[in-house]
Design goal:
- The complex is a heterodimer of chains A (572) and B (376).
- Chain A is 32% helix and 18% strand.
- Chain A is built from 20 helices and 25 strands.
- Chain A has a 21-stranded mixed sheet, with helices on one face. A two-stranded parallel ribbon of chain A has the order 5-7. In chain A, strands 11-13 form a two-stranded parallel ribbon.
- In chain A, strand 18, helix 16 and strand 19 form a beta-alpha-beta unit.
- In chain A, helix 17 packs parallel to helix 18.
- The longest helix of chain A is centred in the middle third of the chain and has 12 residues.
- The two termini of chain A are 43 Å apart.
- Chain B has a domain of 85 residues: Phosphatidylinositol 3-kinase Catalytic Subunit, Chain A, domain 1 (Ubiquitin-like (UB roll), Roll), CATH 3.10.20.90.
- Classes of the chains: A alpha/beta (572), B alpha+beta (376).
- Chain A: One of its GO terms (cellular component) is nucleus.
């Protein structure tokens, strides 16, 4: 029963933007459901196979912005075969046929074809924003179509995609009439671009706030661009190599001094270390600095640079900064909220690495830290306990010890106590990735304390089914669970099959679950899609139920089994 | 012919007259590391490669030719003998045949340079490539047991006077060098095991190496797919960036541009700052003076009648006459004759210099021949 006319409710719902809240609103009653669905403009679909395009279109006719995610997270690490799925094409075709006025499309880990991009560019007159993250399957021809046909394009953001670069003229495809660009990120493209076209595009885009160049853009072009676009807020450099005594470099220095708006800096794929002093003037205002693709910068240069960055909130860096460098970060960047330390040398015993000491220093100095991704050589329980005490605000805590089952470097004990301290102290923890030597005990802690946990990544951990059971029982808000190389078997898998309907997905690879167990699960839960992924050359799906399953991916779905599964995927 | 230099410097090992030997000897050390891992069947191959430096360079080259690095069996590798390189200088243009990494060879050599200069980053790069199969624990084991590695290799090493010293150093360098090799090839996902043939038996090598590893648990871990959990995009980009940065660092910056100068037969190398010269003549006179101590000895033994007068003209004759030829290795890893390109271009592309005996440079230096004719 409504006490207000629909229009009022609609107006109220306008203020509700979070997907979760909107979903909750739609469950209240039929009329709220109806009002909500007609007023909904932004839809987030975390697993593209959980719903079909038709049902999406039917429910939300006012759809303007769609976010889709395709492959499971472990696809990032080559655990999912190449053509497993996650195709954009059916979505675009369905949307193009409908009357949906799509304006924004954000994709992650999807397979995107040039044809899809072209269809997209021609089907939606008001299309404004395309964001592709970790996608693949397209070339610069598809990008050219977007550039050429989307007359009101505001955002073209390509992040870490595998793009087949035809070294074409895609940049020149932006018509002269296109003046609406706000954000352009082509850093992941590997090929040459037309520098003149780039400059002209920048000049006629007065609203350009975010520009991330690729490796092919030399420093002198960067300098010219900055002179024309001093309003830029987010900058990704191209090739940052030049003779520091040259005139071009001096011009760059003065260009940087004029760019008072830059708050975010990235790029530096090719970097001449002696050229970093040019950016010191912008460092004072930086809130985001990404040097994680710049192995050419040594610890000293990094620390010198960071000492200028007092307002930094997010820092992505390589471990060649070292523990000492992290100490400098800790004493300088008091506003730091997010830190990512990537390995410059992932497979070696490297001397350019960080240890638990760096993390402890960070935790002591940066008490606002809430998001961490830390690749290190070693860790100790004591360090983790200290970190937990210093930083109780972690929302995301991802620790990766390069040796996956390394114990406490000092006591040789498992790292259960350390991670236990983290989950106990950080009551708002939503995402956790574990590594190191871990027993079932850590999962007991997680089950007991990680009440807000939504995503958990486990590798080479645990002793028995109990570990997985602790987590499934304890973490009520768990949405995504991904497990590899753990001794969890059918008993854990089948203990509470209803749990998986409350989650988005479960990934288990190289564990102890058998085909029989998966079959049982699929039988009991028709609302789940249980996929067995067999990516070895032998395409035999042995019918022996006792055989262990190498890779299993299951997810809840409203539309049954997908029809685009390749041969090596068996949906039970 | 040339003797391996007993240099303390890391690059001493690679100083045996040709970049191919650089690769091979470094490769040899790299293989040494693999031998450490217990691949006795391969060590004979390696040692034959190493021991036959003087006479069997061509064999080495053939072995190298069987490597899959360029993908085309007949294509020239820059690591070949300098004379071959120069003879086939026209063919050098064919090098960028390899579809993925056109300047692979150049990258290889620049990776070597990074290795050779002991650059920390180079070490990272090489370990990056090297251990993609073996994994971190595996490599740690290598550090712990250097003795095992060097023992199996010691006959060869001592025989050639290479690194009579610290075997740990050998292992480390071989890690670097082999990693340098590997990092050149690594363009695909880090787990593409098939991209790793660095030696004639590369493929089988790594497999047997892992199976022969002393401890089985690290070996099993070493082959872990998808660990550490880094996006393949990042790994690939970093690999490319590292290579490019190696080249970047080699670029002339302000101030000094020191490059190594080696001379056949000299027990150690020198370094010169190319920026202090502005012409070839200045460079060559400086080199003559620098290496006079070596050439004088030769001069005496070659029958300059007793008078070892340090005369510039005599040295010039020695260096630019029939005795010696000045060559340099460029960015692409090719050994070129000094003097062909304008000076500015030369200092931008020159990575190292080598004073070779003319006898090694057959067909290499018609100019040198002319000079010798003239001076005679």
């Amino acid at each position: 029963m409504n006490y207000f006319p629909d229009e009022v409710l609609e107006h109220v719902f306008d203020f509700i933007s979070s997907h979760k809240d909107r979903n909750s609103v739609s469950l209240v009653c039929k009329s709220w459901y109806k009002i909500e669905r007609f007023s909904r403009q932004r839809v987030f679909i975390g697993n593209c196979y959980s719903i079909s395009p038709d049902r999406l279109i039917a429910r939300f006719p006012g759809l303007k912005s769609l976010t889709l995610k395709g492959k499971p997270h472990f696809a990032d690490f080559n655990l999912v075969p190449h053509d497993w799925g996650g195709f954009l094409d059916p979505w675009i075709r369905a949307l193009a046929k409908s009357r949906i006025g799509l304006e924004e499309l954000r994709l992650k880990r999807m397979v995107v074809s040039d044809e899809s991009l072209e269809l997209l560019s021609k089907s939606f007159l008001n299309f404004k924003s395309l964001v592709l993250v970790s996608c693949e399957g397209f070339t610069t021809d598809g990008i050219a179509a977007i550039a050429a046909n989307c007359r009101f394009l505001r955002e073209l953001d390509l992040q870490e995609n595998e793009v087949d670069d035809h070294r074409g003229h895609w940049l020149s495809c932006f018509p002269e009439s296109c003046t609406s660009l706000v954000s352009l990120n082509f850093a992941c493209l590997k090929g040459e671009i037309n520098l003149g076209a780039l400059e002209r595009l920048v000049v006629r885009s007065p609203n350009l706030k975010s520009l991330r160049l690729n490796r092919a853009v030399p420093l002198d072009t960067l300098q010219k661009i900055l002179m024309r676009a001093p309003q830029v807020v987010d900058l990704g450099t191209g090739s940052y190599v030049h003779d520091p005594s040259s005139e071009v470099y001096n011009k760059l220095k003065s260009a940087f001094q004029r760019c008072k708006s830059i708050r975010s800096l990235s790029g530096f794929l090719e970097v001449a270390p002696r050229c970093m002093s040019a950016i010191y003037p912008i460092c004072t205002n930086l809130t985001f600095l990404n040097l994680s693709y710049a192995p050419g910068l040594h610890g000293n240069e990094l620390t010198k640079l960071i000492q200028h960055c007092r307002k930094l909130q997010r820092l992505w860096i390589l471990d060649c900064i070292g523990d000492k460098g992290l100490g400098v970060v800790a004493s300088t960047c008091k506003e730091l909220q997010e830190l990512r330390v990537f390995p410059s040398d992932p497979y070696g015993a490297g001397n350019a690495a960080v240890t638990e000491e760096g993390l402890v220093l960070i935790s002591a100095g940066c008490t606002k830290l809430n998001s961490l991704l830390y690749f290190c050589q070693q860790m100790t329980n004591a360090a983790l306990i200290t970190v937990a005490k210093n930083c109780p605000n972690f929302i995301r805590f991802r620790l990766c010890i390069l040796d996956p089952i390394k114990p406490d470097a000092v006591t040789n004990q498992p790292l259960d106590e350390g991670f236990g301290a983290i989950v106990q102290s950080c009551k708002g923890l939503k995402r956790l990735s574990l590594s190191g030597l871990l027993t079932d005990q850590v999962f007991l802690y997680i089950g007991m304390y990680a009440e807000q946990l939504e995503m958990l990544s486990i590798a080479f951990a645990g002793d028995s089914d109990k570990g997985m059971l602790y987590v499934l029982n304890g973490c009520k808000k768990l949405r995504k669970l991904e497990i590899r190389d753990c001794p969890f078997g059918n008993a854990a898998l089948l203990e509470d099959v209803g749990k998986y309907e409350t989650m988005r997905s479960l990934w288990m690879s190289s564990c102890e679950v058998t085909l029989g167990g998966c079959k049982t699960l699929a039988e009991k839960m028709p609302s789940l899609s249980v996929e067995i992924i067999n990516d070895t050359d032998q395409m035999e799906f042995s019918l022996d139920d006792r055989q262990k399953v190498e890779k299993m991916y299951l997810y809840r779905t409203l539309v049954g089994h997908r029809e685009d599964a390749p041969e090596f995927v068996w949906i039970l | 012919m040339s003797q391996p230099l007993l240099g303390v410097e890391e690059e001493g090992q690679s100083n045996v007259s040709s970049p191919s030997d650089d690769c091979i000897s470094q490769n040899g050390l790299g293989l040494k590391e693999r031998n450490y891992l217990g691949l006795s069947d391969c060590s004979s191959v390696d040692s034959s490669g190493v021991s036959s430096l003087t006479e069997d360079n061509k064999n080495n080259l053939n072995l190298k030719a069987t490597e899959l690095r360029l993908g085309l069996p007949g294509s020239q590798s820059p690591e070949r003998e300098p004379e071959l390189c120069l003879l086939n200088s026209g063919k050098l243009d064919e090098k960028p045949l390899f579809p993925l990494l056109p300047s692979k060879d150049g990258i290889c050599s620049s990776s070597q340079k990074t290795v050779v200069s002991g650059n920390k980053r180079g070490f990272s790069d090489t370990m990056d490539g090297f251990s993609e199969v073996k994994g971190s624990v595996y490599t740690e084991k290598i550090w712990m047991f250097p003795g095992a590695g060097s023992d199996s290799e010691s006959p060869q090493t001592v025989g050639h006077g290479k690194y009579p010293g610290n075997p740990g150093v050998n292992v480390m360098l071989s890690a670097r060098s082999s990693g340098a090799q590997a990092s050149v090839k690594k363009d695909g996902p880090p787990n593409a095991l098939q991209e790793r043939p660095r030696a004639p038996n590369g493929t089988s090598l790594k497999q047997t190496g892992i199976s022969n590893n002393n401890s089985s648990a690290p070996a099993a871990k070493a082959q872990v797919v998808g660990w550490p959990p880094i996006r393949s995009f990042r790994t690939k980009t970093l690999a490319t960036s590292s290579k490019n940065n190696d080249e970047v660092d080699g670029k002339p910056g302000p101030g000094a541009l020191f490059i190594k100068v080696s001379m056949d037969g000299a027990p150690y190398l020198r370094k010169v700052d190319l920026r202090t010269y502005s012409t070839y003549r200045e460079l060559s006179s400086a080199l003559e003076k620098m290496f006079s101590c070596f050439t004088l000895g030769q001069c005496g033994s070659h029958g300059s009648p007793g008078k070892e007068i340090l005369s510039e003209s005599k040295l010039k004759d020695l260096l630019h006459g029939s005795e010696y030829v000045l060559t340099y290795e460029d960015k692409d890893g090719d050994w070129m004759l000094v003097g062909d390109v304008p000076w500015e271009m030369f200092i931008e592309t020159c990575k190292r210099l080598k004073i070779m005996k003319s006898s090694d440079a057959i067909g290499l230096a018609p100019r040198a021949m002319e000079k010798s004719k003239n001076s005679n």
